[in-house]
Amino acid sequence: MAASRDRAVERLLRGLYSAVLYLLVPVTVYHLIWRGFRQPEYLERWGERYAAYSTPPLDDCVWVHAVSVGEVNAAAPLVNALLESRPDLRLLVTTITPTGSARVRALWGERVEHVYLPYDLSGAVRRFLAHFRPRLALVLETELWPNLLFCCRDHGVPAYLVNARLSERSLRGYALLRPLIGRVLRTLARVAAQSEADGARFVRLGAEPGAVSVLGNLKFDVKVGDAPRRVAAAFAAHSGGRKAWIAASTHPEEEAAVIAIHRRLRTRWPDLVLLWAPRHPERFRPVAQACVEAGWRVATRELTRWPDREDGVFVIDTLGELADFYACAQVAFVGGSLQPVGGHNLLEPAALGVAVVTGPHLHNFSDIARQLDEAGALRIGADAESVGAAVARLLADADARAAMAAQGLRLVAEGRGALARTVEMIAPELPPA
Fold it and tell me: Active site at which residues (predicted)?
């Protein structure tokens, strides 16, 4: 009786959720057009957004979903491990954003299948699963789409939430949907949480305690190759070996602060170079223009490839190169942290031995920020002025930078292991060799 009542409640909740989504279909079209004015790629491949495909069906594949660039980078160690250990596997990687799509192609080219994940409309999700027929689903971080995960269960596709994170703020945000999301979580084969705190929050949201494991963060397992060293050497040769700092993954509301910080820093170091990598491609050109209006000579990666000895700002207006360019700077400011975005990946610069500074809004990376801070590998500024002061102190103190770099490298090395644990977890679900 209780089971029957629970199924009835689930059907009701799913029905209400789906009805709202279908009513919002015109809004999705408007959204694509609106985003397309700023980023033309949003005007392309609309069929994939509604699960209409021209490619042949794909059977018995391993499907990885990573919403955008950050999640694709987090998934990279896992996808690379699967490609290396099981070259026979057919891998499907889905994203939602064009930048995520571009990153998939940059990392793996034609070695993986790639499409956009459709909107969470029940019909579109069923068409997606019927076309690709995945053997299992590996969903990165916090992509809790109800119809997607309910349909995976209904189609017999075991779904894993991999590298799962859930901030206290996100947990509060799910308050109204908790009866639905709790049921969604219970469809999962396992929640592989980044930390004990993340795991506990997923249980509070409705996951079965026995289905939650703490495996660590895949971002610790990202390999650092030779590319950063080569990029740093080329940058130094072209720019004259000047001091440099980098503002990475910044959002529009942080741009004025970055310009103000760089202006203050150049009163002390007149030949200081700012490397600037805005988070979103539509901000590349406005950021370059703002720097010109501030009175600096500006180089861009797309047009000039490298800065010369006269350039005050170098805008990294390409995708997928940020990690390499961290190695060019003495100090890195990681954006999304001076406004309540929640921060971005702090481990990338730490893994390259760069001193890291961030703002106070870190709820998406609270565990990593805490670990780096406790290790002495991170400086957290309360506001833009504090961030600028921290960058200045570190530019002036090579010993402090070296100490931070050593602690960051140690922490990254000690944090590795999530990849091996994740591969071991999913191994029984992989297609036979």
Answer: 71 (proton acceptor)
